[in-house]
Design a protein that fits this description.
The protein is α/β, with parallel strands linked by helices. The protein has one domain: 2-enoyl-CoA Hydratase, Chain A, domain 1, CATH 3.90.226. The chain is built from 13 helices and 9 strands. The chain has helices spanning 36-51, 73-79, 83-102, 117-125, 141-144, 152-160, 162-171, 177-183, 195-208, 211-221, 223-227, 229-242, 246-257; strands at residues 11-17, 20-25, 57-62, 107-111, 114-116, 128-132, 136-138, 175-176, 188-190. The protein has a 6-stranded mixed sheet with strand order 1-2-3-4-6-9, sandwiched between helices. Strands 5-7-8 form a 3-stranded mixed sheet. α3 runs parallel beside α4, α3 packs antiparallel against α12 (229-242) and α6 (152-160) packs across α7. The N and C termini lie far apart (53 Å).
Amino acid sequence: MTDRYAAFKSLKFDRPADRVLRITLDRAESMNSLNWEAHGELTKVWNVVDEDPDTNVAIIRGAGAAFSAGGDFSMIERIMDDYAMQAAALKEFRDLCYNMINCSKPIVSAIHGPAVGAGLAAALLADVSIAAKTARIIDGHTRLGLAAGDHAAMIWPLLCGMAKAKYYVLTCEPLSGEEAERIGVVSLCVPDDELEAKSLKVAERLARGAQRPIRWSKHALNNWLRLAGPTFDNSAALEILSFNGPELREGLASLKEKRAPRFDYKV
């Protein structure tokens, strides 16, 4: 692997086929939850992929039993009540999504196990998203006590329509891979034991294709997401505002204590 990827500590890289770069979230001991440093790496890697002359297509996946459990408690606690961290987080939340949208190379996601929060943003903003049947897709923000501000307001209504988007984003109801494919949240669903092979097959097909037309087609299609940019930017700001609220404190405490949250609904 070239030195351009040497600085990334929470991501692992390999090349399973010619001109295909496979990126693995490599924090299996925590179900690939993202601390502040790992979130930053997942944000920045797409700019490096975009400039990589040896890569036509990237695959994003998770090590171990999960795609990603989302932001970890340490990252949430660092952002709470810290204005400088909130400002930095707002930029990074936006950059994660826009860097994937603006990466000229097509991205394929291979989704297995839980895919939550910021990890889910990477899974669903991939140009081709492939889920295992038993994958558990969960937005998760409102359960934690945050506004859904990383990707959901931008892409879920385009993927599955406003009615389904509101239901799954507001309730945090888990979606299986099969149901996610049925309603259009992911591109494909395959049996669990076929996920790796299918993601590689799709990536190889894209890697062998006409590169400029493929990249230009991605750019044009992603203008639908760019049109939703003001909605997304507003949602990201509202998520940061949520970091100062009592709902997050209760949501985080309930997850640590493994109990149902007791939110104050009289507001």
